[in-house]
Amino acid sequence: MTDDEEKLTDYFDGRMAPAEKAAFEARLAAEPALERRLRLLRAMRASLKAGAPAMPADLKASLKRQARERASRPRVSWLESLRAALGPGLGCGVGAAFVAALLAVAVKLALPRRHAADPAAAEWKDDAAAAGLKGLWIDDDGRDSDEG
Amino acid sequence: MLERDALERFVDEFGDHAYSFAFSLCGNEDDAKELVQKAFVKIFDKAASYDASQSLESWYMTVLKNLFLDWKRSWDRKHKVSLDEPTDYDGLTVADSVPDEREEALLDRLERAEEVRNVHRALSRLTKESRAVLTMIDVNGMGYEDAARALGWPLGTVRSRVSRARASLRTRLLAMGVTA
Fold first, then answer.
1. How many domains does chain A have?
2. Is A26 part of the contact surface with chain B (CB cutoff 8 Å)?
């Protein structure tokens, strides 16, 4: 019946192709148990809809008020919000510190990168990476026949 | 980006769907209200970055679902609940052997709208995945594509989970009919 349950679902929700729908309707006409299950689906849906709780009026009114307030509130950027929260004097100080930090990052990025302090250690790392790669190919004789 | 009036209109038009989805996940009014409120506030805050090619409803549902999962994880930690909850299976088999009369009787009660409360009680006992997908598709009328986007599942998973969730709901209702 599980297969029939899914077919009933497809039929009930209008998700059958025309040919399949016609064949299923023929079955419904011939099989009272199947047709009863379809009527049960309709009746259960009607009961579910009939008893669905509506949103309480006070909640709806409150949400509508909030929606109106949000819509009328002008949009403020996060920087403006921060400045307003910190006050005029502190806001300027934080702004200056922020600009200084940005400059420091820019200078650091502009300078050429140097290698690790210990060249031997860097070399050891490279060797280890190479050994790992070699290990990957150690059994490979170059033919494709042993792959896949 | 959302237009000036779009947020308020969205609350107006979509509030009930959002709330019923949250309620089906949380199972109680207080948590559902809090969850919906948080999800809307998040949407309000991110309205400027809204991508109009995406459905607003499925965006909202994604936000709400993620908030629910965060809330559920912290609730489970606090109450030391096992994280091994079944993910997409309600622990019930499709009762193929159910006698026709029992299904006929259930259908009769459903069609006379006598089972609305029981249907919601049965829904609340399914897994969170089943509750989510049934509420999206059967209650809120979302399409599979939007539900898949909101839940972060492939389309085929939505199809199989909605099918299984409906079968589990029916099985639970039949069991409740026996014990009622």
1. 2
2. no
